[in-house]
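Same chain as my last thread, 374 residues:
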Amino acid sequence: MCFNSYFCKNSETMHLSSDKASDSHRLPAEWEPQQCVLLTWPHAGTDWAYCLDDITATFVALADAITQAEPLLIATPEPEQVKRLLGEALDEEQMSRVTYCHCPTDDTWARDHGFITLVSDDAGAPLRLLDFRFNGWGEKFPSEHDNAVNRHLYGLGLLQGEYECHDDFVLEGGSIESDGRGTVLTTSTCLLAPHRNQPLTREEIETQLKQRLHARRIVWIDHGLLEGDDTDGHIDTIVRIAPDDTLLYVGCDDAADPQYETFRLLEEQLRTLRTADGRPYRLIRLPMPDALYEDGYRLPATYANFLIINGAVVYPTYAQPAYDEAARIAIQTAFPQHRLIALDARTIIRQHGSIHCLTMQVPAHYVNPLHGME
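reply #2:
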C-alpha cells in the first residue's frame, strides 16, 4: 500500500524541481489526445446506495461510450463484480481496453480526486502527475479513501509519469478549465470557499495556481453558482473552454428563476473577457434545463458538464427534448469535428454532479505543438 509519508515526504523538493524544469510542461486542453479516462465506480458503501442499480446502469453506459474511443481505467473495491457487469454490456474489443485498480473508495467523483496532469510538447518528456489534496469539497464529505486513489494508481504502475505530491494544496479538477496555452479559468466562489486553502488570499491562490499548473494567467469567474451545487461552484458546471477561443456557457432566460440574476451577471462578465492576445472570446450559449428536484431540493442540472474524449463528446441530457436538442446543437457548433454521444444524466445529478464530474481524462504523453491551431 502507498501512503502519504512515502509519496509526499519530499513534496517541497518536488515543487521546486518542477519549477526549474523545462517550461514546455503545461496543462493541456481537454480536447487534446488522451490515453485513457478514469472512472471511480459506485458501490453499496457510497451515497449511491439508495439508487445503486440506476447509477450502475448509467456507469455502464458511460463505460460503453468511453471504450468506443479510448481505454478506460476503473478504480473500485469490487473489480471482479464490475468486470462481470461490463462483460455483459461491452464487446470483446471494448473489454480489452478496460483496466481495474483494486482500492477502497468513498465516492465516485474522479474529476475532483484524480490526477491533474501536465504534458510536454518535447518528444519523450514524461507526463507530470499532479496529486493535489482532495478534502471532500471543503470538508463536507468523507474523502480519505478518494484522496488516496492516485497513490494506488501510481503505486500499482497503472499510470506512468513523474509523480508530484501537492498534498499541501486543495484543488479539484472540476474547479479549473484550461485552453492548453497557459490560460486557466476558475471561480472565486469555489477557490475562496471555506475549508480549502485559508488563509491564502485570492492573489496568493492565483500565484500558487500559476506555479503548480505552469499557467501564464488565471481568469476568475465571479458569477453563475447553480442551486444544489455542493462544490461551491465548479467552473465545469457553468463555463467550458472549446477550440478557437470559444467559451460554452450556461444562460438563463426565465426571469422568475432564482438563478436568473447570477447567470445574467455571468454572461455580462464573459462579454468583458479577452484572450491572452487581447481578443474577445467566441461565446456559445447553452440552455438551462427546467428545474429538477429531489426531496424538495433543486438539483444542479447543467449541459456544461460534458466529457470530451478522443473524437467524441459525451453530453448530458435530462429528458427535456427541446433543451436537450438545443444543447446538442450548441456543443456540436463548438466541436464540429467530434461525434456527439447523448447520456441521460438524471440519475447522476441526484448526487449533485454530472458526466464531467464523474470522469478524469489522462492526456497522451506527447502532443503536437500545433494543437492550438484547429
